Amino acid sequence: MIRTHIYAACLALAPLSLSAGSLTLFASGEDLATEGFNAPKLTKDGWALEFTRILASFDQITAWQTDPPFMADSADIAGRALPVTGPFMVDLVKADDDDRVALVTLDAAPGHYNALSWALVPGDDGFSLVPGDDGFSLVLDGIARKDGQEVAFTLRSADIVMHACGEYLGDMRKGFVTEGGEADLEITLHLDHLFGRADKPEDDEMNLDARGFAPFATGGVHDFFLGGLHLGHVGEGHCHVSAP
Amino acid sequence: MFPRPRLAGITFAIAGLLAPSAAFSHAALIEAETAQAIRLHAYYDTGTPMADAQVIIYAPDRPAVPWGQGNTDSEGRFTFIPDTVEGRWSVQVRQAGHGAMAHIELHGETATVLAPTVAAGSWVQRAVMVALVAWGALGTALFVLRRKGRPDASA
Asked: What total number of domains does chain B contain?
């Protein structure tokens, strides 16, 4: 069990003042989840992907106020914690106009929530494609197309991946809860770290590590490992990744 | 977009130092001055500079609102002149879908940068490093472009 959650149990639960604001947590697979991989953003091996569903299971989520700021350089986060009761199982294809799916809105003490820990964990009901199995942490269903071929696929992983992330990075700085105000944070899965991108150089380090779609091009159900792919981010911000 | 766009490009600073202080024939007035400036170097832990990366700066008193923005040069360097001194300045550097936030504590003549330690592992775990290269008095210049009616220059 990641040590961040020990901190969560010990340091959190500070009483909220009556003037607490709210913090909404979102999950996103970005436009690659909602719109798929389309030219020029094909997979690194030239496949177009259309997803019918991307089921992700998140748990052990804690938002943190850290000072000095946590820099995503270890599994340990120290600070004021706001633990979130999970798990959450969401379809990242069924997202809003900003490609996000709301997980939960919490009362939160004012301050800057500049770190976020969370885990991809196997889900339970609704995630077991085969009755009686243990479920999956990530399932991607869809259709792949290339050169007249059309392949239906289901890719699934039962891996547990712990994430200790720093501050959300994106077009706007996030996580500032003010008295009576609203703020949000986002768990972001970068799907191009799994499939690569044809619009980036072949020797781009992301493409060197990404699997592409070729290993799954026979279609049907494929299991894959999340280890080494590093899908999890907070916007464009990095996370320290570890196994339990 | 930015309420206090007081970024002064180092290009102007150099020009200001080299050019004569007398007005040009096109009625442009240059006044040289010195200012305390922060110079950063953004790079990956592989040593590769973050060339032409987007930089967004947040001031201590309004940490949720961009104070200014720009781009690193080909060596990953970026210079800005804070308009207040005390407190934590935050600098976000982004490139190709990845980025990092660095924090610079300014207290009087002392400046320290909070940077991530380098995490071993695959490339995606490599840190974006932002190093404080300089905090000190640099020359700068205030341009008064009378013909365009602008009170000052922007970088």
From this structure: 1
